[in-house]
Amino acid sequence: MEKPPCDFTIFGVLGDLSQRNLLPSLYQLEKVALLHPETRIIGVARHDLSQEAFLEEVRHKLQSFISEPLESETVERLLARMHYVLINLDVPEEYIRLLEVVNPQERVFVSYFSVAPSLFGPICTGLAQAGLVTPTTRVVLEKPIGRNLATSQEINDLVATVFSENQVYRIDHYLGKETVMNLLALRFANSIFTTNWDHNTIDHVQITVAEEVAIGSRWGYFDQAGQLRDMVQNHLMQILTLVAMEPPVNLNDDSLRTEKLKVLKALRPITAKNVDKRVVRGQYGPGFIKGKAVPGYLEEQGGHPASITETFVAIRVDIDNWRWAGVPFYLRTGKAMACKRSEVVINYKPLPHNIFTGNCRKLPANKLIIRLQPDEGVEIEMLNKVPGLSDGLHLKRSMLDLSFSEAFGKERIAGAYERLILEVMQGKQALFICRDEVERSWQWIDSIQEAWARTSEPLKPYPAGSWGPVASVALLARDEREWEE
Ligand code: BG6
After folding, report:
1. Model pLDDT, residue 424
2. Which of 164, 235, 378, 481 has the fewest beta carbons under 10 Å from its own?
3. What's the rounded Cα separation, in Å, for the pair 336 and 468?
4. What is the per-residue burial (b if ≥16 Cβ within 10 Å, else e) of 158-176?
5. Within 10 A of 50 (CB to CB), how many other CB atoms are there?
6. Binding site membership of 439 for ligand 1 (Cβ less than 6 Å)
7. In this predicted model, what pLDDT tens digit does every residue of 46-87 receive, in sequence order?
8. Which residue from 26, 9, 13 is spatially nearest to 109, judged by alpha carbons?
9. Which fold has domain 176-413+434-477?
10. At what angle do helices 237-244 and 178-188 cross, to 10 degrees?
11. DSSP characters over 207-267
12. How many angstroms is it from 233 CA to the middle of ligand 1?
């Protein structure tokens, strides 16, 4: 595997994302020798820390955020690559301090913006002024990129004053998940699916990303965003595009992104007229998750009792193109739900004629269930004859179950950030989102936000630890369908 020497710089190295995801991922890459021996990791933050204190802090965070026992040799090898640079990110003159460590003329220089988007502009200016922008400089942008189309355009414009699009890597960590990637393999490496993947055979598609965790201490951030912006605009839209897109010519950067973009362009906008029938927004109240009492969203630490921010969304999405004409995609996602479960369910059409009427009045249709997390795998629900000599032919629903842990043994599933960090180092953009995708997706999300602003339909409450508001069941029942449970 290609692994070029790289100066990998994390702006906001002491922040939550870096400690939870980036540093542990670098540890895993070190462990399996996927970092070039000369790769250096540079942590940037505004705290006055000595190099020793910084390394101690990293060691401590690795212990806190990696659940398996740490290999001390791997930790030491990783720490030996690390440098700390103190920069006040909004002071452009301070960026020259990076020149003491990095060498963008000779090595790939990656800047990972693990900070609030309001700092993206100042970091770009600082890097440019310090002469740190060369053709091999790459920048990684974390979500949220804006809170609507207008603000995302502002951020993208700012970054574009310094970097060209082929230097910008916009992260959606769902694209780094093994099972999300497997959607490509499932669809385009198996002829039974390539030929059964359109309005001729599919009745509807369900995409569920349920989270068990409640908002807790993240109230300040989350209340400004809501579940539509926090999860649908990025993660669910990305899964949707992978399920719905046309076969890409190959897996190159542009091929994949071009096909995903076409799906986003074909999404039917939601309007004030139909929003109440197409979208359900909910907010969790007090309840129980795994037997433990959980406060409602409004009672969480730092919560405001009058907040109308949604913690649950269910949407009927229509894709206006040839392949998906008349095939709705139902999306649902929420916090504080019954359990953590992400899956795609492809519901096939019922057969045109039933020859088993003696024993089965209505033949249930086949389902393909793609379990994204946890317990990754693929299941097909099908009908079989019950063995035996009894009169007639009795049918029973059974599951063809491919569990990844059984099929691939104890092989550890690499974390999403591990894959994405490697791809940036290698200069591959296919698993990152291009500007057009971000903006198209915001445009569609804005249509919902605008429709919500004009409707008087209140938020629907649901108890923490449930599958969301009753209205979400009604959303499908209106179309004579039901959620996979
Ligand atoms: C993040 C959201 O992007 O994804 C969080 O901001 C959410 O609110 C998280 O909890 C879910 O990611 P995962 O990988 O745990 O499904």
Report:
1. 96
2. 164
3. 9
4. bbeebbeeebbbbbbbbbb
5. 10
6. no
7. 999 999 999 999 999 999 999 889 999 999 999 999 999 999
8. 9
9. Dihydrodipicolinate Reductase; domain 2 (3.30.360)
10. 20
11. EEEE-----GGGHHHHHHHHHIIIIIIIIIHHHHHHHHSPPPSSSSHHHHHHHHHHHHHTB
12. 12
How far apart CA 467 and CA 474 sit, in angstroms, is 13
Q: Is the CB of 230 under 6 A from ligand 1?
A: yes
Q: How many residues in the chain?
A: 485
The CATH homologous superfamily for domain 6-142 is NAD(P)-binding Rossmann-like Domain (3.40.50.720)
- 211 Cβ below 6 A of ligand 1: yes
Which pair of tokens denotes residue 283? 């907010």
Q: Which of 242, 243, 213 is nearest to 230 (CA)?
A: 213
Domain boundaries, the chain: 6-142, 176-413+434-477
pLDDT over threshold 80, residue 390: no
Token output for 217: 């201490």
Phi and psi angles of residue 433, each rounded to the nearest 5 degrees, phi first: -95, 135
Q: Give distance in angstroms: CA of 413 to centre of ligand 1.
A: 18
What the block records as the tokens of 108 is 């790939």
Mean pLDDT of 388-400: 84
Residues designated as active site:
235
Q: How far apart are CA 428 and CA 436, in angstroms?
A: 18
